[in-house]
Amino acid sequence: MTTTIQAWTSLENDAKELEKQATEFSKPALSFRLFPTASAYDRNEISNIFDKAPAGKKIATLAKHL
Q: Which of 25, 45, 53, 59 could join 40 via S-S bond, C-beta 3.0 to 4.6 A?
């Protein structure tokens, strides 16, 4: 039981660290503008942004444009 609790505590600490890193990487000063900024106003435009985003970065790309 103690091992399980320690594993969950370790997982929680790792998740918090990853969240901090993700927040730091998403700051404008650190982001690179490889593509022009897109403005999505309707469902189709949002879908296009999502579909054209690189694999593994779809949600992050969409979040940057909203």
A: 45
